[in-house]
Amino acid sequence: MSVFPPSPALPEPVSQLQADFTLLDRGSGPRVEVSCQAASGSPPITYRLVERDEHIYMWQRPDDEQPANFSFPLTQLSHWFQCQAANNISFQCSAFTLVPPGQLPHGPIFLLAGVIFIAAMASWNLGWMMWIRLPATLQWSQLASGWGLLPHCLLV
């Protein structure tokens, strides 16, 4: 009777990314605290806090199964932020959050601009995908090794 060693666990993609934004005032002025954590995914997982213009505001690679915690002073200007998580297999993005929370403009102009933007992005993405295909030899680990090569999350 032969005994086989246990097979190694298969790498697990990043999934169920949760981003929590909290506004605090502890005497030194208002601050924003952001906690980002994927419910599952093989380590190491790198987290980024990204502005809507794709500027990387902060990034962390916490210990296994720990959230990334970001903290920064609140400014007078509103900014859209998104949490992104990636490991060697996949990436995931949270929805954008407006900091500080505020009222978006309502009405037909804003709705029309949103519809036009979505249509333009869909058209561009379809055209791009028809012309550019990743080589079969390019693996997710190669993509995740350089954040600049990762596909971008949708901005809508």
What does this structure look like?
This is Protein IL-40. Pfam families: Ig_C17orf99 (PF17736). Keywords: Glycoprotein, Signal. By secondary structure, the chain is of the alpha+beta class. The protein has a domain at 15-104 and 138-149: Immunoglobulin-like. Helices cover 19% and strands 34% of the residues. The protein has two helices and eight strands. It has helices at residues 108-131, 140-145; strands at residues 15-25, 30-40, 46-51, 56-60, 68-73, 79-86, 91-93, 97-99. The strands form two sheets. Strands 3, 4, 6, 7 and 8 form a five-stranded antiparallel beta sheet that branches. Strands 1-2-5 form a three-stranded antiparallel beta sheet, with no helix packed on it. A hairpin with a 4-residue loop joins strand 1 (15-25) and strand 2. It is elongated, with a radius of gyration of 19 Å. Mean pLDDT is 75; it is low at 103-117 and 122-150.
Short précis:
This protein is α+β, with helices and mostly antiparallel strands. Helices cover 19% and strands 34% of the residues. The strands form 2 sheets. Strands 3, 4, 6, 7 and 8 form a 5-stranded antiparallel beta sheet that branches. It has a 3-stranded antiparallel beta sheet with strand order 1-2-5, with no helix packed on it.
